[in-house]
Amino acid sequence: MKDILASPFISEMCEITSNMYRLGWNERNGGNISVLLDEKDVSPYLDTEHVLRKIPTGFDAPSLDGRYFLVTGTGKYFRHVAHDPENTLGVVRIADGGRTAELLWGFSDGGKFTSEFPAHMMSHMARLSVEPENRVIMHCHPTNTLAMNYVHPLDDRSFTHTLWQMCTECIVVFPDGVGVLPWMVCGTNEIGLATAEKMKEYRVVVWGMHGLYCTGKSMDEAFGLVETVEKAAEIYMLTVGKPRINTIHDDELRTLAASFGVSFREDFLD
């Protein structure tokens, strides 16, 4: 077997989590990531017949049965992932109709996946139903996006419209808009189900007064969504309450989308 620590998926996870911590998006043990892996990605590095232990998920997910995930651990700090991946990460295979995660590698101190893994599973199923190539669910607490939650209405249309007006690239990067949820208790199936419902329409979901859930075909794509939303939120927070002399008008947003050939939520413009 090849050394799993040299695998592309572990290497990329170490790099991404380090960057997310450095940018202040994932303080302490805040935030989590799960990556859907193909068996061909895993088999060169692990004996897929050797199950270390079985961990109940507390959730039914029959459509994910037999699928493999790389997932961050509960209580683990993102700043520790790069130098201790075997303790902070785990590779699991979903079994028993989703009710069990078979641990194949990682969580070496006896730990388990993030408490929000059921919410991740729900979002993976929702995104796969509309985007079969989706592979990543990424949750973090970007500072300016979180601050914006306290001074801006929390609804899909107005939140999206404001972000689109902050940076020229925004309507191109997330033309599908941003879904927004009110404050809810995290780590529950209730917030997982509400997020998954939004994920049928959006690749970015705001958890009110909490953070972001972003998705992508790769970790790079999900990371890029976070940084684009966060840059727009930062510009908003730097300018909110000040006289606005200039803005990107709705007709200009339409022209921009047409120029880049992207379909966008026309109903989110005036």
Short description:
Helices cover 39% and strands 17% of the residues. It is an alpha+beta fold and 270 residues long. Helix 5 (117-130) runs parallel beside helix 9 (189-199).
Reading the helices and strands in chain order gives HEHEEHHEEHEHHHEHEEHH
What's the CATH class label of the largest domain?
Alpha Beta
Class by SSE composition: alpha+beta
- The name of the CATH superfamily of the largest domain reads Class II aldolase/adducin N-terminal domain
Task: Tell me the helix content.
Answer: 25-40%
What does this structure look like?
- With 270 residues, the chain is of the alpha+beta class.
- The protein has two domains: 1-115, Class II aldolase/adducin N-terminal domain (L-fuculose-1-phosphate Aldolase), CATH 3.40.225; 132-270, L-fuculose-1-phosphate Aldolase (3-Layer(aba) Sandwich), CATH 3.40.225.10.
- 39% of the residues lie in helices and 17% in strands.
- It is built from eleven helices and nine strands.
- It has helices at residues 8-22, 39-42, 78-81, 85-88, 117-130, 143-148, 156-166, 170-173, 189-199, 219-239, 250-260; strands spanning 32-37, 53-56, 68-72, 89-95, 100-106, 136-140, 179-181, 204-207, 211-216.
- It has a nine-stranded mixed sheet, with helices on both faces.
- β7 (179-181), α9 (189-199) and β8 form a beta-alpha-beta unit.
- The radius of gyration is 19 Å and the shape is elongated.
- The protein starts with 7 loop residues before the first helix and ends in a 10-residue tail after the last helix.
- 43% of the residues are buried.
- The mean pLDDT is 96.
